[in-house]
Amino acid sequence: MKWGKNTQTSLLLAFLALVTPCPAAKTGKAPPPPTQPDMVLIPGGTFRMGSDHGQEFEKPVHKVTLKPYWIGRHEITVAEYRKFVEATGYMTQTEKAGSSKVFDVKKGDWVVMKGVSWRHPDGPKSQPAVDEPVSQVSWNDATAYTQWAGARLPTEAEWEFASRGGLDGAEYAWGNDLRPGGKPVANWWQGHFPDTNTLEDGYLRRAPVGKFPPNGYGLCDMTGNVWEWCSDWYGADYYAHSPRANPTGPPSGEGHVLKGGSFLCSENFCTGFRVSSRRMHVPDTGLNNMGFRIARDATDGELRPSKARP
Asked: Is the pTM value of this prediction over 0.85?
C-alpha cells in the first residue's frame, strides 16, 4: 500500500502520542516559551471539517487546508493563569462584575452567584485544583493571557484539526466509539443530564489536565472537561462559504466559537464531546465549564529538521 505524505505524517505523530504521556501541569513557574514540550507542533494538512449528521450549524462537511502551527498540549491551568495575574495585576471581567453564572450540580441548573471568579469558579467558597483548567474566564480574559504569553487562541479550524488527531472523519477525538473498551476516556457527564451523573469517569466537575489518554497528536482533554475558546467569531452558516485555506471565521458576530464540550455534556443533552460540535458565547463573560488553550504560528525555522528542536 502506498501512503501519501499527509498520511505518513499522521501515523508518525500518532505513534509518538502513544509513547508520550500527557505531562503534569507545571505549577511553580511562569508559562514556558511556546516552543517547549507543553505545546505540540501540528503539521498542517487537509481535512474534512464539520459533520453531515450533526446539528445544522455543523454542516456542510467541507475540506479545509491548514498551514503548520503549535497548540497547547492541554488547557491553561489555574496555576498558569495565576502566574499571568500575578505578573500583570490583570482583573478578569467576572471579578469586575462581582458575579457570574455557575452550574449547580445539586440543583441541576444554572444560578447566578456573587463572589465567583477564576479563583472561586463554583461558588464564593470553592477552591479549584491548581492543575485543573482555569474557568470563569471570558474570551477577552483568555485573549489577554495569550497576548502576555506571546501566543494566541487557536482558530476553530485549527482546533478541530488538532482535536481529530489525524483521524479524518471520525466522530470523536479517539475514533467512532464513545466508550472504547466500554469505558469513558474523557471527562463528560455519564448518566441522564441534569439529574443523574454516574461518575464513570471519576469526576463531577473539572478534572486535572492530562488524566485521560492523549489523542493521535499527543493532545490532552480535547474532549470534555471545559469548552474551549477559539479566536473566531461564530457564524451559524459560516461553513457554507468558509475559505478553504486557513479560515479565521466571519469578520464580526455576537459571540465567539467554543469547541470540545465540557463535564456537563451528556448523551441526552449537548453531545459537545463530538469533534465537530460547536457552540458560541458572548466575549465578555465566563462560566465554570469554559476555559481555553493557546496556539501560535509555526516559523520556517521550526519546520526545518534540527537536532536541537524540542
From this structure: yes
Residue pair 91/286 in contact (Cβ under 8 Å)? The answer is no
C-alpha cell recorded at residue 173: 477525538
Under DSSP, the state recorded for 206 is P
With H, G, I as helix, E, B as strand and everything else as coil, classify residue 286: coil
In which band, very low, low, confident or very high, does the pLDDT at 300 lie, cut at 50, 70 and 90? confident
What span, in angstroms and rounded, lies between the C-alpha atoms of 110 and 128? 19
Give the number of residues written for the chain. 310
The dihedral over CA atoms of 134, 135, 137, 138, expressed in degrees to the nearest 10, equals: 130
- pLDDT-derived band at 115, boundaries 50, 70, 90: very high
Q: Please give the grid coordinates belonging to residue 91.
A: 482583573
Instruction: Judge residue 167's burial from the number of C-beta atoms within 10 Å of its C-beta, 0-12 exposed, 13-18 middle, 19 or more buried.
Output: buried
Q: Output the CA angle 28-131-227, nearest 5 degrees.
A: 135
Q: How far apart, in whole angstroms, are the C-alpha atoms of residue 70 and residue 60? A: 27
The region, left, alpha or beta by phi > 0 then psi within -120 to 50, assigned to residue 142 is: alpha
Q: Which domains does the chain have, with CATH numbers?
A: 37-89+133-298 (3.90.1580.10)
The rounded distance, in Å, linking the Cα atoms of 134 and 69 is 23
Ranges assigned E (strand) in the chain: 39-42, 45-49, 62-66, 69-72, 99-104, 109-114, 227-233, 256-259, 279-281, 290-291, 295-297
